[in-house]
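FAQ
Q: What does a multi-component entry look like?
A: The components come first, one per line:
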Amino acid sequence: EAGVVQSPRYKIIEKKQPVAFWCNPISGHNTLYWYLQNLGQGPELLIRYENEEAVDDSQLPKDRFSAERLKGVDSTLKIQPAELGDSAVYLCASSIQGSHEQYFGPGTRLTVT
Amino acid sequence: GENVEQHPSTLSVQEGDSAVIKCTYSDSASNYFPWYKQELGKGPQLIIDIRSNVGEKKDQRIAVTLNKTAKHFSLHITETQPEDSAVYFCAASMGGTYKYIFGTGTRLKVLA
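Then the predicted structure of the entire assembly, as tokens:
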């Protein structure tokens, strides 16, 4: 069974540019999470989806970050415009609805110069 | 806000020895405590978890203990092997939700 797929794996952009990350969860997993992981830190939740509904986006900086999961499967996380402080690894995870077991993708390492 | 503290930040052990990583949490309503292993360039991988109605859980060489009164939980790895080298994260649920607060990680190095 394929795991959580994320692309791109690495992205380098200049500040003030837009960037987008894509995630394909494990088949059948209704719940999808986006996390931010700074170097030497644990993941921090940005947003959680149940199917296509964002049920917890309290930690998402909505002035520059946006996310969507239009058909309740794939999801895209966007930053516009990017700032130097956004350099981090962006992780996507999925789980079966109602289950605590989250499965993480490999992440996208973003570098903003 | 809610907090999870994790110690130590780095740990080196000889192959075959045991390793113990400890976490404390602040939310008395936390009821789910997973442990994740993260290898370089990969996402975290769930290795074991424990719920608040259980005091101990074991899976082969890995065990987790939970002390609800003291609000701390620990990961125990016995007979360590070089492939156990990685960063380990503990986490605690915020109340009964699916939102986790993660610790800051422990870099475990198993010396052959």
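Q: Is there any commentary attached?
A: Sometimes. For this entry: The radius of gyration of chain B is 13 Å.
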